[in-house]
Specification:
Layout: E1 2-8, H1 14-26, E2 30-37, E3 40-41, E4 44-45, H2 48-57, H3 59-76, H4 80-86, E5 90-93, H5 100-108, E6 113-117, H6 124-129, E7 133-138, E8 146-147, H7 150-157, E9 162-168, E10 178-184, H8 191-200, H9 202-215, E11 229-230, H10 235-243
Parallel strand pairs: 1-2, 1-6, 2-5, 6-7, 8-11
Antiparallel strand pairs: 3-4, 7-9, 9-10
Helix pairs in contact: 1-9, 2-3
Length: about 250
């Protein structure tokens, strides 16, 4: 299949995950391009994101997250453009995946699958432009905990085990046909630990999802769950989270 990668410019988790995923995909598929988009959190961009973290989780948690991201970035010694160049993949930037020039590129390149790790809501023109599907990784067992910071809400609500879903995108938020899921019922740790575990498995998950699209196979977790959606947590949500002995970092 002809594959395009649409990713946010994030280094704490995503960069290393794509470093490991691209060569795995290239064993059986043609990775045509890597598109880089701003890292956003709902309607927040740029310096507004760390300000929100400070106001919601506190300065110590925000500093701890920033230091871990910095250490990871220094250890990786690269960026997305050099990553694409190293693997022989064309590199592009845009402000949103829904931009007309991005949609046109997908059509021109006859892309079968777009793999996305972005915070943008994908609109119909891009969905229609791909030949097979736009595919998303969501860090919860859908349809539970749709929306933002899904691991935080999974741990707080206790509705389901920590898990991950790979699914086709449609115009609803974290909706669309589920391709595969993985649960981590024995997980005990922080939000940061959970994301580290999920992104560690991303190469295997995405390559398995592409194979499933080719074969029609589906692998769903049977744990009971119900439909739920959560936005960004409030300070009151964070106080409840901590009162339950849960940790973000």
């Amino acid at each position: 299949m002809k594959i395009a990668i649409f990713t946010s410019e994030e280094y704490a988790f995503l960069y290393g995950a794509w470093q490991r995923t691209i060569p795995e995909l290239q064993k059986s598929h043609d990775v045509v391009g890597l598109w880089l988009f701003p890292d956003i959190l709902k309607n927040l961009r740029g310096w507004h994101v760390p300000v929100w973290y400070v106001c919601t989780f506190g300065l110590l948690t925000t500093v701890a997250l920033a230091l871990r991201a910095l250490v990871t970035r220094l250890a990786e010694r690269g960026n997305y453009e050099s990553l694409a160049r190293f693997h022989g993949v064309s590199f592009h930037r845009a402000r949103t995946p829904n931009a007309p020039e991005v949609v046109q590129w997908v059509k021109d390149q006859q892309i079968d699958v777009v793999l996305i790790t972005v915070g943008f809501i994908i609109k119909q023109p891009l969905i229609d432009a791909v030949r097979v599907a736009v595919v998303n990784k969501h860090s919860a067992l859908l349809p539970s905990c749709r929306g933002l910071l899904p691991v935080f809400w999974t741990l707080l609500t206790g509705e389901t085990p920590v898990g991950v879903t790979v699914h086709k995108i449609d115009t609803e938020i974290d909706h669309g046909e589920i391709i595969l899921q993985r649960a981590y019922p024995e997980f005990r740790g922080s939000v940061y630990d959970a994301y580290t575990m999920i992104y560690r498995d991303m190469p295997e998950l995405l390559t398995a999802a592409i194979h499933a699209l080719e074969t029609g196979e589906r692998a769903l977790v049977t744990a009971p769950r119900h439909v739920s959606y959560h936005s960004l947590p409030s300070r009151a949500d964070v106080r409840l989270f901590r009162a339950k002995g849960l940790r973000f970092v």
